[in-house]
Amino acid sequence: MKKALEITLGIVTSVGGFLEIGSVTTAAQAGATFGYQLLWAILLGTLCLIFLVEMSGRFSAVTRHTIVDVTRERFGFPFFSVVLVGVVLVAFMVLVAELGGIALSFQILTGVRFPWWAIPVSLAVWLLMWKGTFKLIEDGASLLGLVTISFIVAAIKLHPDWSAAASGFLPDMHEHHKARYGFIAVSILGASISPYLMYFYSSGAIEDKWDESYIPVNRFIATMGMSFGGLLSMGVLIAAALALQPKGIQVDTFEQAALLMTSALPRWGFYLFAFSMMFACFGAALEISLAIAYFFAQGFGWNWSENLHPAQNARFSLTYTIIILLAAIPLLLGVDAIRVTVMSMALTAATLPLAIVPFLFLMNDPGT
Length: 368
Known about the structure:
This protein is mostly helical. The protein has 17 helices and no strands. It is globular and about 55 Å long.
């Protein structure tokens, strides 16, 4: 019964792990600019993430260690420090974007500009981490994020040409705007294959005390959960292709992105978009903050667990406190969250080898 519950909640967790401001923004830009032509990028990113998440869960279940622990021990601290700097800097940018996504959701609901929401939003994320357990964070925010299913509903209600959409799963370099096409494709891959999710998932397996008996559960969670997240992202792209591309609307602001829902659901679309982004970004902000804290704590050998009282792992708790505080500063200064999102997704793709190549060596090392 416990493992059946793990499967259900693991699939739901993909909302916070996969669908967030990066995947929504890049999918919406792809649909608004190139129609269905970049569906292949979401499919490829989803498949890659399925394999990475499955391997990270299996790795921790078998070794009883996190990826960060073994990376530091296997390659030494000097090499690990390079990985730490690269991964954490990019993850921090993504965290700024996620907090910005929550603040922008409040902005379009209330009319109050997003910098005013920076402190309340950051405080809410921090407070839940300070008071909550790992399961509460993993499952609670993700359950709220189920409202993002409305993206699929919107795509279906716009009556897409499914044969034309199917052609988008085959790469076809656009004759015009090749640079733009390539940049968005890379950004989609960066949004899909997020290294922080791999580290978060690995740490979560240890938090939940997985062993070899969880390998089949892990395989099912990784496959179905990430596929569910990829399907939601495809729904965003298809809705944008039908609602925004014919009108020549480019997704440069949150308000423009909201139009992909209002065209299909005139009465409720605006609110569904705002709450979908609010909950999805909230879940992602929690996971990223935890992933960064895990990375530091495991890398430096500190005591760590979200299930412990903050006094029992003070340095771990202090790390996510400082990270969230620093991430709020750019928002207070009025930084454009959409621009940060696009930049961070491209940088995520550029730094993927830094995180993934060492992990692949570990997975193929008989001594690990």
